[in-house]
Amino acid sequence: MRDLKHLIYFDNLLQEANNELVRQAKEDGKIIAGYTCYHMPEVLLDLPGCVGVRLRAPLCTSPDIATYYMSGRTCHYGRSLLERALEGGYNFLDVQFATETCTVTTRFQEHLQMMDVIDNPVFFCEFTDVPFKKTANSIDHYKRQLEGHVLKPLSEKFGIDTSDKALLAAIEEHNEVCRLVTEIGDYRKLENPTITGYEFSIIMLVTLVCPKYLILPKLRETAKEMKTRKPDAKPNFRCKVLLAGSENDDPDFIKLIESCGALVVADRFCYGSIPGREEIEIKEGESPIEAIARHYLETGHCPRFMGQNEMRERKKYLADVAKEYNADGIIVESNKFCEYWSYERTIDSIVLPRDFGYPVCSIEKEYINTASGQLRTRFQAFVESIEIKHIQEGK
Amino acid sequence: MKKDIKKKLKDFWYGKPHKERRLGDLYIDKTGLYKHREWRGVKDTFYYFHMIWLYNYANLVVDVMKNGGLFVFAKGVWRYRWVGQTYITVMHWFDRGHEGMRGEALRATAWHYRAMTNETIRQFMRMFRADTKLNKGKQNEIYKKTMSHDETVCGAIFYPWRDKIDNVALQMIPYFVTCHVNCQTVLNYIDAVQSIGLPADPCPMCQAEAGIYVLDDYPDYSPAFVASNEACDGSVGTGILQDWFMNKPYFSMPQPMQFDDPLVHKHTMAEIEEAWKFIEEHMGIPFDWDQYVKYTEKFNKLTEFEWEKWDVAANTPYYPINGVAQALYRIYYSQDGYRDIWAQTDEKVRKIMHRCVENKIETFPETRHRLLAWSCAPLYYSFWTTWAYNCWGLNTVMNMDSLMFDMVLRTDTYENALDDLARYHEWAPMRRMAVGGYKHVFELWEYMKRFNCDMVMMYDQLACKGMQGIHGMFEDEFRERNIHAIWMPHALPESRTVSRAEIRRIINDYMFTVMQEEPLDPSLLDFDDSLSW
Lengths: 395, 533
Description:
Number of helices of chain A: 15
Mean pLDDT of chain A: 95
Radius of gyration of chain B: 23 Å
Number of helices of chain B: 22
Largest sheet of chain B: 4 strands, parallel
Strand order of the largest sheet of chain A: 2-1-3-4
Structural class of chain A: alpha/beta
Strand content of chain B: 5-15%
Shape of chain A: globular
Distance between the termini of chain B: 43 Å
Order of helices and strands of chain A: HHEHEHHEHEHHHHEHEHHEHEH
Strand content of chain A: 5-15%
Largest interface: A-B, 57 and 53 residues
Number of domains of chain B: 1
Number of strands of chain B: 8
Radius of gyration of chain A: 20 Å
Order of helices and strands of chain B: HHHHHHHEEHHHEHEHHHHEHEHHHEHHEH
Low-confidence stretches of chain B: none
Oligomer: heterodimer
Distance between the termini of chain A: 26 Å
């Protein structure tokens, strides 16, 4: 396939958290708000006058000082974020909107509160409590949390307009990003997809880590370009897979999978688009903040949700996504020391083949993958097993 | 010669002085069993033999008879490995926890052990009587009148139904109690859950709980289940497996994270009300406010006595309860909720403690350092406190788990009661101080002052992401405050990760090299109890 016009530009934006567009937004006088989790609604951080940046620590392979503070027995992602913060890599942040959604990122964000890490006099870190269920009580609680711990500080400390009108404007911009990303991502459903998982992951990531108003023109252009993009005459993949699991903001990990012959056609992981790029719908009688609270709880499929229905539906959801995207198998990954996904991965690897007929490759990985040789062997074996299955089924 | 005989007679009558006991010589190598029992002097040896050893052995049978009989018990032992493997080791657990103890401390500590044993038997016998697996798949009347729940859902949640139904925490006995009594029991369950693909790094407590399901070793004794997040990510993960294996109505009542936030507190109150509706719906019995008030007020009496105990522990050398009894009894009853046995025990202990204070009896006279134990303790070596006192004079005065439910629950109005119960629920084990926000974790400094402690035993649970994630901040603070802290690595129930001998070696090293002290009993410095229960 022909290279996408902006792919290298997008890729360059992912090389550091304080990228070119973040710097430009700062020069434009925007407030820069950091966050780590899907359950801190990015749309609120993209209110007019404000820009949300989902934190990453690209190229951080050796978080030595963070390992002193958080020990070597916690998730590499959380430690890498702290290391980058200690290095001064997040000094552009004016505020961190923290969520206590998993223990290690919580501890990372608590270090931002405890230690004078961010070299910015106005900086503060505010926590939001995210419920564990999706009941009416939980949605109401979540709404009150977002009002009290996101909108209120934005308004009081930075003078950001948090009125319904401003929220509607932010939702509109957010929805356009979602529409474009979904449109681009839908090409992965084709029999011979016109976009690779690696390319899509770069596009998805830039929408999380760059100011939306600055990235939108290039996204629009890319969506237009995709309409006429021709696939390779002969597909260069041997099977299609859904990649599910814990935090993954490393496009090279997807590149590794694809280099083994498995095209990643669906991304159901933290920092992925499923869920993540569904448009926010405001139902009749709902205020914008109510719609946002409901949307982020209803669309979330994190294993931290512990309502009985939610725990059970997650498996079916995964199978449904695999079917929708014509995946032949599912790779379930978890970052080492991620407890939620350790359990979810274990049960997924039993339930998905047994109840839904999907072969599963279950792997554990680091935030930055240094063990690529071992993983490559696993992926190659998985691809071969799928091919054998196809032969046995006469496909 | 005359002097020798006099000394021998004195030792016979009163027992040897602390520094001459050589308790380590009593062990049979590797097993932790005794070549012979310790001679504590005439009075204490006879007290131990009759009032602790014989009395509790007899009550192990009596309690079974009172709670369903030998036949039910035998079926349970045959079916569930955790009970068979721990029942016969109970008295060994008593022995190790009471080593070297004398006088009033021996008596008060033993009553705590007795209460825990009694309540444990009551709970597992209730499970067995209701269990469909032991009753040919039949859901009998006891099954229909029993609620099961996660061990960190406090018993107070079920007070409104206490006169009609009983609640039994699912994991408390099969997992939590058993690994204290026999450190080998739960290893099998940890291996089982790893055999289905779970990595080895999640909290081993959660692994063990999940592994019991994998081996189908939980009784099925209730129509519905109330779950909590047991305050950490691993427990939430365990819930996924739990629901899958259990497959029955399941209500999740999480302990929230940011519980200092008043908005969060309101949410917790609403969740408790939802749980009450769930119980009403599945048990078919309405909420009874009077029952709630009755049992809460009784429970408050336990809390008031706990405060009295803390006061003596903090401000005098007359506190007659050793570190292990303080920790286990407190967490057991505060989580379990009111039971008559706790009140009866407190009455006995109250008399002993008052006697100690009135007569100025120094209960741990060889105390060199007063320790506050912080974070989550090694379940397979909770009696390290007894060893540390005997070997080094390290007296563990208080521990973190004891301090969590530091409140009286109001019962004047429904709103106040719910408000306080929500707070109590939020202060569950591990939530308040281990993974409940760094401000609470650092309450350590205030409690050190309050209990007049000069050292910290810092439990280093290797798989606890919450505490590992704040390890360096503790290091910094200890240095800045010039506090002696010994980091004790362990893996909760997983006794293979850090052995008891390794824990002792770490403490020994610190005492020799940093504190530059000599042991009170050198025979306890190094011994092999690797095959011990």
